[in-house]
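Sequence in, structure out. Go.
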Amino acid sequence: MKVINKHKRTISQPIQKIALLFKTLATDKWPPMKLDKGLQEGSKGGHGPIRYHVIDYQEGKSIKFQFDRPLGFDGYHKFELTSLEADVTELTHTIDMTTAGFGTIKWLFAIRWLHDAYIEDAFDKVENYFTTVKKKSEWRWWVNPHCVLT
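Output:
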C-alpha cells in the first residue's frame, strides 16, 4: 500500500530560531528518538518499535530517515524547515513509503494514529516555545502513548 503522510505547521519565527529547536522535537509523552551517533548521516536508531537510519542531514534545514523496521515498511520519513518569509518558517514532516503484509495492518490500525499524534505534539512543542498561548493538539480518543511498545 502506498503511504504519503504529511504534516505542516507555519510558525511566525525566522528559520534560524526554529533550526535551533530542530533537535528537540521529541516530547515527554512519547518514547524519545534515540540515534547512536546523533544527528548525522549513517546514525542508527528509532523510537518505540520504529527503527531507521539517517540517510541525509542538512543542518538547520532537513533530516531524512530510511525505515529499517517494522518489516513491511519500505521508504522514509523526513523533517524539513522552509523559510516562507523573513520571520515565518514552515515545519514539515513527511512519510513516503510502501507497506506490505503485516506492515500494512500495523500502519492502518495502530502506527498511523500514534504517529499523527506524536508529530502534532512535536510541532506543538516547537510552536509553544515562542508563544504565551499554548497550543495542544487533540488526539483521537483511542491514542494512548503509554501503550506504545518499545
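Check: Residues 2-147 form a domain with the Alpha-D-Glucose-1,6-Bisphosphate; Chain A, domain 4 fold (CATH 3.30.530.20). The longest helix spans residues 102-129.
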